């Protein structure tokens, strides 16, 4: 930079301005003269008298002669006061440039610049080290430095020449003291911080007022390079360059760029009056003033300075001995501090916000405790140098008001007892560690770089050469791989040279063991000495590697990085990730901590590093303790970063499949020996290693957040494997730029790198066995089958269920995530044995039993939330695999758990004791648990085997209601009064229609019943038959057989006269008793005789009459044909009228006297209650009940964001055309659900005004639906909820996916066709809508029909249509989820969430507590947002925000995950379901759907109960309920 300018070092060395004429005389002469001359001057300064304070020097000649004496006096020993008085005089005189004083001679006052220049040269003598009285010299030097500071700050008359002399003075005194090797406790060590601080401060003042010329900058750079063995030099350089950077960023990137905050005491070092151009020029020059900071890692360079060589010659030592000088032992710490300063600058340019505390492990060169007055700027989250056992606390973090870079501070303080030999690394038992990840806490997301940050190439142009060199410090590179200083070697050339050097027999095992490395094939790093480096240089190298990782992770979407930078970066990573020759744990940890997004950044060729990262993860994740890393890093944060990297690599084997790997991949994939190395390997062969690492991580992880991330990854890999096997393919070509990944198949003769991925990492002792080896050994046979989807599923179920009932059951966040994983695994379409499925169900049941049986003090809302989540998981498994309940043991276990949840105990506690339901007192764990158990029972009884219903998955209920049934009955009246309403068990409403439907051709006792219960509305038609259904199928209508014709001519006819008594009676003789009754003639008198005769005549007449009738009858009979139609027996016709409601209730036992009686000592009503449907409001409440959903409903709003967009209108317009969106976006939409017509859809559509329709569509609307634009012609905007939406439903939930689109009417209300007056009229009419005749399942039935097409607007307009103060079903609280497809990842921070909140209205907001405002109350932070960013590889990067709450993160999608095209839709949908379930668990006001319906049924019973006496009730059953006339 200054090659064409000459240095001033020779001028400084040859300058004799600090010499006095007295130096020519004997020392005794000069000493006596100085003592005699200085004392009067000093006494005059110290006198309080005004007259005596006046200077005794009047002429120029006097002053110059006196200054010669003072110059010599400054060189005298410090045993007297002469030197002090000389300092007093000169510090007073140089103030002539600041303010006039009487004590200053007039010649100096008249020409201050000239004299001050001379004084400054004389003062150099003070800084020459003396052997004795060091303390006095330190105080005098400090006085001079303070005076110089004041002079530079306050002087306004300094000429350029004076400024230049002042700068040379400071350079000279710094060089005098700091260039020589450090002496412990010496003058240089005590003054170093102040010396370099004053130099920089004065230099900046000079830049402001009189910018130094290039020779001065060149001289400063050359001389500063000789002082770098002092820690204070690097500390002060870091401090001032950070302060300059803070000012530079303000005007370079504008106010929107995150401010780089530095401590105030550092910021004031930069003069406020320094303009922007001066700051830019000064910043670049000061940045390079330290020369190459990587030189600090090479003692040979530091020890070749002239001062070091002079000392070497003075002691007649050897050249090698100078490298071992004690002061050079501090170079590792100094190198680390320099790298940390550069790292801080890089973070400032990237705009990375960091607010957490540095956990310092301070180097032992005098740092004792933190102080706010003087400290070097240090970036946070970095590797700190190993230090002595004494540790220090850290300063509290700055409160973050803005997204900014925060610098914490540590103080450099003089210490006479500091050691020159830094100790070895010692393990710390503290939970804090020096190396921390960019996460502030475990729950906070990783900070993103600023969107307006510079490009990667720009940052690397500034710092790349230093960082790349520092990243390879202490690395022994193979022959042919030496670093090219010009950075012109291509990556392929490096790879080929790398491969050529290891194809020799000696090089085949070069990476296996250090003892086997051939030195003939190895060369030292050319910029560094070949001698052994101290281990402590690893800290600075680790800082550089971590900084490089952050730089490359900050790559913007579509940004191009120079191949030379990529190649050097990959080589740095390859060296840092080594685990075979020698594990450099600080470097490995730093790379892992700072590379979570490395595989998500679309770096060209990054996938060639996959095997190296896998090997590193195999070292870290399966190791439970990470004891060897604890000295450098918090193990939890290291594991978290490793898991992030693992999440981004999991889809790669399936995605690239059989794509053959590039050079570096050969020999890195296989676990076998070199026998397979001759064949190119594929990405698919990495799958087993990745899965093993994942399983090992789960087995050893103890942190809740890390565990949840692993659980999410398990569902990702299982689902992806299942889908891949389902389509019968093992490969998937990458989408996009074919040159993006350099993964081409090459034919080669060499065998690649000979090494095994599970080779021993260190030594040969059993303790050094790689964790991955032990992991594979412990897996046994089951692990060998984890390369299939079924094997993965079984293995996952075993792992999760085992831990769910052991170490996880006490942790709420892990338990919820594990249950969510099990729910997701239940939906994976893979055939597994029933025993494995039963294992999952049994595990969940055992989990519920354990949680319910915990002691009462442990019962809390959170515990009950865990139980509720377990019941929900159980429902998912049962609905997805209903055949499990066909097995008796599984059915019994599930029902026992349901009983436990409802009643609080099991009936069967042992083999002998059984407690019946009637004998138990209900004591559930809580009402929430009871509700969840009831929902599970409803699921078992109502849904298993019955979903989807005949109505389709959109409606688990029947689509029939009273209106529809009456329409199809044979009744002329359409009144609903034809229904009888009863309530069973206070929980089921029966609406009975006793008329058969019109299509019934076989009259029989039939009744149509609408059953409204907790599980919904169901329609049943029941008929009474006396034969089984099978016999009725072949039976004909009953026709009676006719009588056979009579045959009178058959047989013999006998005329027999019948006697009243048998003939034997006449033969019986009489006895006296027989004779006791006299005969008639014996008692007849005359009077009786007359009567007797009358009687005879009457009898005779009667006989004649009867004989005549008999004769007539015989004649008529003889004339009558057979059969006689009058007397013939004809069977009656079948009955047409039945009291079927009474029959049904009677047959089911509900009409017994016991059923009608209220239970004693209970507030419960009887088992059977009649409802009076004639009361006002009855059918309104029935309609209200029908509007209550039977399962949770979710709403998802999907947006598409193109690069650079910031406004809501731009985003809404993207989905108007397929030309504006990527094809994968449309594919993603269709993977979420299936399209439905809003006008005909009976389920949830995303807005209450169009949801749950039954018969709201007419012919015109159907025609309009047919004319809708095909989805292929749109960018997804057709699914905006107007005419179409995307819908998904299973037995337990339903989701509407809405893609809001831009409509003119959404911004201009005058074009909507709905004027203000019309809207007011609609609102006035709406309170009576529920009283309309055609009751449907739609929330506002007539309202949707009556609106014109122009009035059916966007969701925003729908929310404005809703009435104010109207009583509607309490559908909330709701959780709305936003999914954003973002083409450029950096645009995530610009997503206008607040502006789009009006577009995500569902109408539910207006249903809470008769709100008087239609404004959305949802805040930005409460809305979960899932960002999907398509990578060039065809994979997708996920970012989740707002989804964390009381119960931590939600799986399966977690922040930073990478997923495949196949699994994207499933994982997004499953995450949405889990987010909404978590939100419902958190909500205190949420009630399950069946509870809301039950409460409404109880309310209807209370309001409309028909309180009849028992006789009146029975009488009412025989009475008609309405006019009954059949249709003709």
What's the helical proportion of residues? 40-55%
Task: Indicate the structural class.
Answer: mainly alpha
Unreliable parts? 355-443, 479-534, 663-678, 729-784, 1257-1272, 1305-1367, 1409-1416, 1524-1528
Provide the spatial order of strands within the biggest beta sheet: 11-12-13-10-14-15-16-17
Output the number of helix runs. 53
Radius of gyration: 49 Å
Total number of β-strand segments?
A: 17
Q: What average pLDDT do the residues reach?
A: 75
Largest sheet: 8 strands, mixed
Principal-axes shape call = rod-shaped
What amount of the residues lies in strands?
5-15%
Give the end-to-end Cα distance, rounded to a whole number of Å: 109 Å
What does this protein look like?
This protein is mostly helical. It has 53 helices and 17 strands. The strands form four sheets. It has an eight-stranded mixed β-sheet with strand order 11-12-13-10-14-15-16-17. Strands 8-7-6-5-9 form a five-stranded antiparallel β-sheet. Helix 17 runs parallel beside helix 20, helix 18 packs antiparallel against helix 20 and helix 33 runs antiparallel to helix 34. The longest helix has 34 residues. The protein starts with 8 loop residues before the first helix and ends in an 11-residue tail after the last helix. The C terminus is likely disordered.
């Amino acid at each position: 930079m200054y090659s064409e300018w000459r240095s001033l070092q020779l001028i400084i060395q040859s300058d004799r301005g600090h010499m006095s004429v007295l130096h020519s005389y004997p020392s005794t002469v000069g000493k006596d003269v100085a003592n005699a001359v200085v004392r009067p001057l000093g006494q005059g300064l110290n006198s309080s008298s005004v007259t005596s304070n006046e200077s005794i020097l009047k002429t120029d000649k006097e002053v110059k002669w006196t200054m010669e004496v003072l110059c010599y006096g400054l060189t005298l020993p410090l045993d007297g006061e002469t030197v002090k008085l000389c300092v007093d005089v000169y510090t007073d005189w140089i103030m002539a440039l600041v303010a006039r004083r009487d004590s200053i001679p007039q010649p100096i006052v008249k020409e201050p610049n000239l004299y001050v220049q001379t004084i400054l040269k004389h003062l150099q003598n003070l800084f020459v080290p003396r052997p004795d009285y060091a303390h006095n010299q330190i105080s005098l030097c400090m006085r001079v430095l303070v005076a110089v500071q004041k002079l530079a700050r306050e002087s306004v008359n300094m000429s350029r020449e004076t400024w230049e002399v002042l700068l040379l003075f400071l350079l000279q005194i710094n060089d005098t003291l700091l260039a020589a090797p450090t002496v412990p406790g010496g003058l240089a060590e005590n003054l170093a911080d102040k010396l370099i601080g004053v130099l920089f401060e004065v230099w900046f003042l000079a830049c402001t007022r009189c910018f130094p010329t290039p020779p001065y900058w060149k001289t400063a750079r050359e001389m500063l390079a000789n002082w770098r063995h002092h820690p204070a030099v690097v500390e002060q350089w870091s401090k001032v360059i950070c302060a300059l950077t803070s000012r530079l960023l303000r005007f370079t990137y504008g106010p929107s760029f995150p401010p780089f905050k530095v401590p105030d005491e550092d910021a004031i070092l930069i003069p406020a009056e320094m303009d922007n151009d001066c700051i830019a020029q000064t910043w670049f020059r000061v940045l390079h003033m330290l020369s190459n900071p990587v030189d600090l890692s090479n003692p040979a360079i530091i020890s070749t300075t002239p001062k070091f060589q002079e000392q070497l010659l003075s002691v007649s030592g050897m050249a090698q001995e100078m490298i071992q000088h004690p002061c050079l032992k501090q170079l590792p710490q100094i190198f680390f501090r320099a790298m940390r300063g550069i790292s801080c600058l890089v973070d400032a340019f990237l705009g990375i916000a960091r607010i957490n505390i540095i956990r310092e492990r301070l180097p032992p060169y005098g740092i004792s405790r933190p102080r706010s007055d003087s400290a070097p700027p240090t970036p946070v989250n970095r590797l700190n140098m190993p230090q002595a056992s004494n540790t220090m606390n850290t300063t509290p973090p700055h409160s973050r008001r803005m997204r900014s870079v925060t610098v914490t501070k540590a103080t450099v303080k003089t210490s006479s007892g500091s050691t020159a030999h830094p100790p070895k690394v010692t393990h710390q038992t503290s939970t804090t560690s020096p190396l921390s990840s960019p996460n502030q806490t475990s729950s906070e997301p990783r900070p993103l770089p600023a969107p307006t940050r510079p490009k990667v190439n720009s940052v690397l142009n500034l710092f790349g050469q230093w960082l790349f060199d520092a990243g390879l410090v202490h690395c022994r590179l193979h022959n042919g791989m030496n670093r090219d200083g010009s950075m012109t070697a291509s990556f392929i050339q490096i790879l080929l040279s790398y491969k050529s050097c290891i194809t020799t027999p000696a090089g085949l095992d070069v990476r296996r063991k250090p003892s086997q490395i051939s030195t003939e094939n190895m060369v030292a790093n050319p910029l560094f000495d070949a001698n052994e480096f101290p281990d402590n240089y690893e800290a600075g190298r680790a800082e550089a590697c971590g900084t490089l990782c952050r730089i490359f992770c900050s790559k913007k979407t579509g940004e191009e990085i120079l191949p030379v930078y990529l190649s050097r970066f990959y080589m740095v990573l390859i060296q840092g990730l080594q685990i075979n020759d020698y594990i450099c744990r600080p470097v490995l940890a730093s790379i892992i901590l700072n590379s979570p997004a490395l595989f998500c950044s679309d770096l060209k060729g990054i996938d060639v590093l996959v095997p190296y990262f896998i090997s590193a993860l195999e070292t870290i994740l399966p190791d439970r303790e990470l004891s060897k890393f604890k000295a450098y890093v918090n193990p939890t944060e290291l594991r978290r970063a490793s898991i992030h990297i693992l999440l981004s690599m999991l889809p790669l084997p399936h995605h690239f499949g059989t794509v053959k790997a590039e050079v570096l991949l050969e020999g890195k994939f296989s676990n076998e020996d070199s026998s397979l190395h001759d064949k190119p390997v594929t990405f698919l062969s990495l799958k087993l290693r990745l899965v093993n690492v994942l399983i090992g991580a789960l087995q050893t992880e103890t942190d809740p957040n890390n565990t949840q991330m692993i659980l999410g990854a398990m569902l990702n890999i299982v689902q992806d494997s299942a889908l891949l096997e389902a389509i019968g393919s093992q490969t998937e070509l990458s989408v996009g730029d074919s040159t993006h990944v350099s993964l081409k198949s090459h034919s080669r003769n060499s065998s690649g790198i000979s090494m095994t991925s599970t080779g021993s990492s260190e030594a040969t002792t059993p303790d050094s066995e790689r964790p991955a080896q032990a992991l594979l050994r412990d897996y046994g046979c089951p692990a060998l089958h984890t390369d299939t989807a079924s094997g993965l599923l079984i293995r996952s179920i075993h792992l999760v269920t085992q831990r769910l009932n052991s170490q996880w059951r006490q942790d709420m966040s892990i338990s919820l995530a594990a249950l969510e994983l099990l729910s997701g695994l239940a939906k994976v379409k893979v055939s597994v044995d029933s025993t494995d499925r039963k294992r999952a169900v049994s595990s969940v049941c055992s989990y519920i039993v354990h949680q319910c049986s915990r002691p009462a003090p442990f019962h809390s809302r959170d515990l009950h939330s865990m139980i509720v989540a377990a019941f929900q998981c159980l429902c998912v498994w049962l609905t997805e695999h209903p055949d499990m309940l066909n097995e008796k043991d599984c059915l019994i276990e599930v029902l026992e758990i349901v009983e436990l949840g409802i009643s609080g105990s099991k009936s069967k506690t042992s083999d002998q004791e059984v407690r019946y339901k009637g004998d138990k007192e209900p004591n559930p764990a809580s009402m929430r648990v009871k509700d969840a158990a009831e929902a599970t029972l409803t699921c078992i009884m109502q849904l298993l085997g019955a979903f989807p219903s005949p109505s389709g998955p959109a409606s688990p209920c029947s689509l029939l209601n009273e209106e529809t049934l009456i329409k199809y009955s044979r009744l002329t009246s359409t009144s609903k009064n034809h229904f009888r309403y009863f309530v069973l068990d206070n929980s089921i409403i029966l609406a009975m229609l006793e008329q058969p439907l019109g299509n019934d051709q076989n009259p029989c006792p039939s009744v149509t019943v609408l059953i409204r219960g907790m599980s919904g509305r169901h329609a049943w038609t029941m008929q009474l038959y006396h034969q089984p259904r099978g016999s009725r199928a072949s039976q004909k209508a009953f026709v009676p057989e006719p009588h056979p014709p009579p045959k009178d001519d058959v047989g013999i006819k006998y005329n027999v006269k019948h006697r009243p008594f048998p003939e034997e009676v006449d033969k019986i003789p009489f006895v006296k008793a027989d004779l006791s009754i006299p005969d008639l003639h014996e008692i007849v008198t005359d009077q009786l005789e007359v009567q007797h005769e009358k009687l005879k005549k009457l009898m005779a007449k009667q006989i004649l009459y009867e004989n005549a009738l008999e004769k007539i009858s015989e004649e008529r009979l003889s004339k009558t044909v057979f059969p006689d139609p009058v007397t013939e027996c004809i069977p009656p016709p079948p009955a047409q009228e039945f009291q079927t409601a009474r029959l049904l209730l009677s047959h089911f036992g509900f009409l017994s006297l016991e059923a009608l009686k209220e239970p004693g000592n209970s507030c419960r009503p009887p088992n059977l209650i009649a409802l009076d449907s004639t009361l006002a409001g009855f059918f309104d409440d029935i309609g209200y009940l029908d509007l209550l959903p039977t399962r949770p409903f979710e709403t998802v709003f999907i947006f598409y964001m193109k690069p650079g967009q910031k406004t809501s209108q731009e985003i809404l317009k993207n989905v108007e055309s397929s030309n504006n969106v990527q094809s994968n976006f449309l594919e993603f939409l269709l993977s979420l659900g299936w399209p439905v017509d809003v006008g005909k859809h009976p389920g949830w559509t995303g807005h209450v005004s169009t949801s749950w329709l039954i018969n709201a569509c007419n012919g015109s609307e159907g025609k309009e639906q047919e004319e809708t634009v095909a989805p292929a012609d749109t960018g997804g905007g057709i699914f905006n909820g107007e005419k179409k939406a995307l819908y998904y439903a299973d037995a337990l939930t339903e989701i509407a996916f809405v893609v809001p689109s831009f409509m003119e009417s959404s911004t201009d209300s005058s074009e909507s066709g709905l004027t203000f007056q019309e809207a007011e009229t609609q609102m006035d009419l709406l309170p009576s809508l529920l009283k309309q005749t055609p009751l449907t399942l739609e929330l506002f039935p007539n309202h949707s029909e009556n609106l014109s097409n122009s009035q059916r607007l966007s969701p925003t307009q729908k929310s404005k249509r809703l009435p104010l103060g109207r009583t509607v079903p309490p559908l909330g609280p709701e959780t709305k989820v936003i999914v954003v497809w973002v083409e450029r990842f950096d645009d995530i921070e610009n997503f206008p969430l607040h502006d789009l909140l009006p577009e995500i209205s569902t109408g539910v907001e207006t249903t809470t507590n008769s709100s008087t405002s239609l404004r959305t109350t949802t805040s930005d932070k409460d809305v979960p947002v899932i960002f999907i960013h398509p990578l060039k590889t065809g994979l997708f990067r996920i970012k989740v925000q707002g989804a964390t709450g009381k119960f931590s993160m939600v799986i399966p999608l977690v922040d930073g995950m990478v997923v495949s095209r196949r699994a994207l839709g499933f994982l997004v949908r499953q995450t949405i379901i889990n987010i909404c379930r978590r939100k419902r668990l958190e909500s205190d006001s949420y009630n399950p759907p069946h509870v809301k319906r039950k409460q409404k049924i109880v309310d209807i019973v209370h309001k409309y109960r028909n309180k009849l006496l028992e006789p009146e009730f029975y009488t009412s059953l025989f009475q008609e309920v309405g006019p009954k006339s059949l249709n003709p």
